[in-house]
């Protein structure tokens, strides 16, 4: 049985996105089953508009140039890469309801579910991370 990696994405900045998608794609590349649960600001990481311009911490703007020079893919590319590798995305139903967001606001291929949906996967996870 494949190892499982469960990730909770609850923060919505650029660095958070790189952490989430770096770990998710690395785990998927090593044949691990990966599910990411996006909640609160973490929903920005898969929002069709927001993920194109995620906030970066003040004073850390120089990292954007570093990402470019190092040929690090932009977040929309990492999202697509993760999905192509089989990473499952769950958007938090409660948070979406609270924020008045519909499934159509997010990248194609996400599942919408509550904490119970994520916990069903996470209960058998070998690794659980929160960003």
In short:
With 131 residues, this protein is of the alpha/beta class. It has five helices and five strands; from the N terminus they run βαβααβαβαβ. 28% of the residues are buried.
How does this model look, in words?
The structure is a single chain. This protein has 131 residues and is α/β, with parallel strands linked by helices. It is 37% helix and 18% strand. The protein is built from 5 helices and 5 strands; from the N terminus they run E-H-E-H-H-E-H-E-H-E. The chain has a 5-stranded parallel sheet, sandwiched between helices. Helix 4 (93-99) links the parallel strand 3 (88-92) and strand 4 (111-113). Helix 1 packs parallel to helix 3 (75-84). It is globular, with a radius of gyration of 14 Å. The mean pLDDT is 96.
Radius of gyration over all CA atoms, rounded: 14 Å
Average of the residue pLDDT scores: 96
Describe the main β-sheet briefly: 5 strands, parallel
Beta strand %: 15-25%
Number of helices: 5
**Which secondary-structure class do the elements indicate?**
alpha/beta
**Share of helix among residues?**
25-40%
| SSE series | EHEHHEHEHE
**Strands of the biggest beta sheet: in what spatial order?**
4-3-2-1-5
Q: How widely separated are the two ends?
A: 26 Å
Strand segment count: 5
* Form type: globular
Which features characterize this protein?
5-stranded parallel β-sheet, 131 residues, 5 strands, alpha/beta, single chain, 18% strand, 5 helices
Walk me through the topology.
Blueprint: E1 4-9, H1 14-29, E2 33-38, H2 62-69, H3 75-84, E3 88-92, H4 93-99, E4 111-113, H5 115-122, E5 127-130
Parallel strand pairs: 1-2, 1-5, 2-3, 3-4
